Amino acid sequence: MILELSNEESRVLKDALDATLRTLLDEIAHADQREFKEALRHRYDRLHDLQRRLEPLVESEQVYA
Q: Which superkingdom, per the lineage (predicted)?
């Protein structure tokens, strides 16, 4: 799948990912149940991977995610 984003859209998406990742870290730190904590960690890992893949594209002029 190819998703084309404008520069503005890619920056907005990166900002949303950044905020979500910060929130997830806080939720992981405060989670009591092991299964819930693992589910949050799995979600964090997937979103963090997307963030890493998006970051170099946000810095360039051409954006394809």
A: Bacteria
